[in-house]
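Notes from hallway chat w/ T.B., transcribed later so I don't forget. T.B. wanted the structure written out for a chain they're using in a teaching module, and asked if we could keep both sequence and C-alpha cells in one place. Agreed to drop them here.
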Amino acid sequence: MNTAFRPGLPVGLIRLGLLASLLSASLQAAEPSPQYRLLVTSKTSTLQREIQAAAAQGYRVLAAWAGRDFIVVLEKPADNSEKYDYLLVAALRTSTLQSELKEAGIQGFRLLPSAVFLNESLTGPDGEELVLILEKAPGPVIRYDYRLLAAATDYDYVPGSNDSVTGELDRGALERVIASAVEEG
C-alpha cells in the first residue's frame, strides 16, 4: 500500500488535523501546575497563623519537620477547588497532648503522619515539646479517636547513692509509636 500523499485527500482535512494537534499541545502546556510554598519559623504560634493563611489561599501541608526552626512544605493543587483547615497541637505533657488530640478528633481533624516532630528549642521536665499538625477536610465532619500509647523509656541504674534510677523518654520510640498508631487507624 502506498502511503504517499494522494491528490484526492482534502487539504482542509489535513489542516484541521494539524490545527487540532497544535491546539491540543497548547492546551496541555496551558494546564495549571501546582504551586509550592515553604514556611520557616521558630514559634509554634506563628507557624499556626502562617499555615492557616496559606490554607485560606488553597495550600495543603505536604510535610513538616523541625530542628532549630519549624519547616513546612505546602502545595497548592492546580484545581485549588477545596480548602482544608489546619490545627497545630504542641504539648510537653502526655496528658495535655491526649486531651488536645481528643478534642481535635471530635472536631474532625486528622493527624498528618508526615507532620509529627519534636521542638528541640523547648524542653520541660517531661522532655521536648511534641508538635503535630492536623488537617480537616472540607465537607461533612468525620470524627477521629486518638489514643496515646506508651513509648519505651531508657533507664540507667546508678549504683550507690541510694541506688537511684534515672531515665528519659526515647524520642525515636515515641515517634515510631505515633506513626504506627496512625497507620493502623
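Follow-up for T.B.: Residues 1-6, 160-166 have pLDDT under 50 and may be disordered. Might be a good example for the class.
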